[in-house]
Amino acid sequence: MSQKANSEKKIVGIIGLGLIGGSMAIDLKRRGFASRVLGVESDPVHASAAKEIGLVDEIVSYEDCISLSDIVVVAVPVGAAVKMLPDILDRFQAQGTQDKIVIDTCSTKAHIVRSVHYHPMRPAYVATHPMAGTEYSGPWAAMPGLFDGRACIFANSEESDPKALATIEGLYDTLNMRPAYMNADNHDVHTAYVSHISHVTSFALALTVLDKEKDEKHIFDLASGGFSSTVRLAKSSADMWVPILVQNRENVLHVIETYIEKMEAFRKAIEEFDEEGIRDLIEQANRIKKIIR
Amino acid sequence: MSQKANSEKKIVGIIGLGLIGGSMAIDLKRRGFASRVLGVESDPVHASAAKEIGLVDEIVSYEDCISLSDIVVVAVPVGAAVKMLPDILDRFQAQGTQDKIVIDTCSTKAHIVRSVHYHPMRPAYVATHPMAGTEYSGPWAAMPGLFDGRACIFANSEESDPKALATIEGLYDTLNMRPAYMNADNHDVHTAYVSHISHVTSFALALTVLDKEKDEKHIFDLASGGFSSTVRLAKSSADMWVPILVQNRENVLHVIETYIEKMEAFRKAIEEFDEEGIRDLIEQANRIKKIIR
């Protein structure tokens, strides 16, 4: 990691003060990476909440954020981020700056990386996906320590300026994240499997239960810890998840297809009273123990 | 609750010293409901572990457990329990006892309740389902406080002797469980929705990921908290879940069918780039917030 990159505190401008942007704001300031944290938030209620909670030092305009910050963090849903990123690089170019860096935190990487692939300021962009979150959103969901111990993916990092990359590695090191390096397309395949499909299965589970169980009192009574943890992600916001599912459409469809096949295998085995078949499926599934603590 | 029922400590015999039986043993003894806890465990390794950990005062034979205990708790997988329960009532009858009680803790209730419906000793049986658990099993998984604050279902409680019922209400009160009363058939419908389907979806999720993701290192790296909580139940044991899925076959199949329809709705909306459709599905699913904290 470049010595110079870490020798001075940075002004960090965060666009989007939700769970991810807000949580970054807290820890980058507290842990001394940022000298100042500026925030941009289009929703006025969220903006004033973020200021009141103390997530940021100041709420500024989008334009001021880009001109005042050393590092701009785009922490908005991926649909908006894909439009915003080229504009930010345009502005860097117009300002004639060499040292500014922009990063995004989106959960899909192929489209956004492709959107600026030929931009002359491409080296100033570091594509990242900090793999952390909860089912809650908005500035009220922000919390210290959200990223601690989790993985952060750097996508197509060879397209970034090495000095910019080192600075951002330092940023995520401050957040106590484990770095992983990956091609953007591979990233999207992997996250379809270990993140996106989990959300779809939770949404479908919630829909199933809500659809059939008219007596809500009973759901509440009978819901054990197992159900709660399985359905937890179904609280996740449409604003965030619609663009993810659309942008990662091919991969997500592929995983849904496989998933439905597995459900059909269970259905068939149960239908046929095939106890050995059910046992085989469960014991295969149990191998997940080796991977997930 | 009958005063007499709670006026004296009971000898409790627990058949099956796994997560449920073992956790009951701990708290019934510690909290003073049981004067002595006897244990029956067919697996010799589990039996000696249960003794070493101190879950029970003594490991006894099945026969001794039934003759020595005031309350017999059948905490074995439901397939075995359905065979064991009539035998225990037979033995109560042969002993000419009037005061003994047997309960089960199984996750499906219709079959087991039906199996002793016409037994002359039926009133000595209280059918219960303490809705608590983790994805772990065996005596090592037993823990104090497992049941605290959870719901306990009493199925077809009108078929039990009122005094026996009051005693068992006292037992679950000691475990800090909220009682709920339900017809056994309704119980099985409800648990298919809020417990059994969660397990099937987790198993299918684990199978999907394990099937496609050859590079296990990447699953581990990318697995966020969301994936872990959604897939957690996939660690659950086949010994417990094969009989549950088979015994609750009709209800589980019905729920799986609805669930696959919901997954297909997602697939179709994503396939057709139908952002409004995806948003509708997610926002409907979000209503689960009102029910599950």
Describe the structure.
Chain A is an alpha/beta fold and 293 residues long. Chain A folds into two domains: 3-182, NAD(P)-binding Rossmann-like Domain (Rossmann fold, 3-Layer(aba) Sandwich); 187-290, Orthogonal Bundle (6-phosphogluconate dehydrogenase C-terminal fold). Helix content of chain A is 54%, strand content 13%. Chain A has 13 helices and eight strands. Chain A has helices spanning 3-7, 19-30, 44-53, 62-68, 78-95, 110-115, 162-174, 184-212, 216-222, 225-231, 238-247, 249-271, 275-286; strands spanning 10-15, 34-40, 58-59, 71-74, 101-104, 125-130, 151-155, 178-182. Chain A is globular and about 70 Å long. Chain A starts with a helix and ends in a 7-residue tail after the last helix. Chains A and B meet through helix 8, helix 9, helix 10, helix 11 and helix 12 of A and helix 8, helix 9, helix 10, helix 11 and helix 12 of B.
Major sheet: arrangement of strands of chain A: 3-2-1-4-5-6-7-8
Question: Biggest interface, and residues per chain?
Answer: A-B, 92 and 92 residues
Helix content of chain A: 40-55%
Which CATH-level-2 architecture of the largest domain in chain A? 3-Layer(aba) Sandwich
Fourth CATH level, the homologous superfamily of the largest domain in chain A? NAD(P)-binding Rossmann-like Domain
End-to-end Cα distance of chain A, whole Å, is 31 Å
- What is Rg of chain A? 21 Å
Q: Percent of residues of chain A in beta strands?
A: 5-15%
Strand segment tally of chain A? 8
Order of helices and strands of chain A: HEHEHEHEHEHEEHEHHHHHH
Broad structural category of chain A: alpha/beta
CATH top level label of the largest domain in chain A = Alpha Beta
- The shape of chain A, in one word, is globular
CATH topology of the largest domain in chain A: Rossmann fold
Unreliable runs of chain A: 1-6
